[in-house]
Hints:
- By secondary structure, the chain is mainly alpha-helical.
- The chain is 66% helix and 2% strand.
- The protein contains ten helices and two strands; from the N terminus they run ααααββαααααα.
- Strands 1-2 form a two-stranded antiparallel sheet.
- The longest helix has 25 residues, at 135-159.
- It is elongated.
Amino acid sequence: MMSQKHVEAKLQLATAFAELAGQTPPERITINMIVDRLGKHRKTFYYHFSGKEQLIIWLFRYELGCALSERFEENLLVYEPEGSSCYADFPYYVHNLKESGRIYHAPFFSVLASVLEKRRTYYRAILSTRGPATLDQYLHRLYYPAIKQDIEFLVQRELEKLGPIQAAGVSTILQKNDCMDFLAQFYTDAFLSRFAERLYYSSRRRGAHDIYPFENVVHDSLKTLVESQVKRLVEDNF
């Protein structure tokens, strides 16, 4: 865990960059411009960050982590494995399971939206750039495994309803076809693209209350899809 003083120093640099990005295209912002805004030296920047790409990711992870910690109990927060990255101290996702077994992540998506909206102009600029070493690519790498784990959880719950032979057979088919990989990629792309589009084109910031009873659309639709396809596999093969 980094010291509060260290966090505050990183946040100063990241905030300076975000403010500059509201006036200048991010790719044209230099390290000198960032440190000059704070009256610091270049060495200060490189003590805390390896470059602008790391700064961009850190600011997102830090602000999202703080927002998630404020909104959710610690036992619901999802972290990267300890030591796996320099952002592992910050939660990035939740596993909010209802007593019914329903994955209810509408509150998570609401928090994610609030973090992006807080720096709307900044994230519009940052997420307009796609490709290697961008925040867009990083978010896909970050959330794909999390969404896949949710899908695997939903599949397992359906397999538990079957007999052992049927469950083993359906599991083999799903693993062989790599269909869960595709499904995870599809839903990851879908929700991230939706959040990016909101920054550009949505004049109204719709919240969960605006789309009730479809506020948990990502995971409820995943659950319905998994249920129907497991049932179909059983009917077709057993």
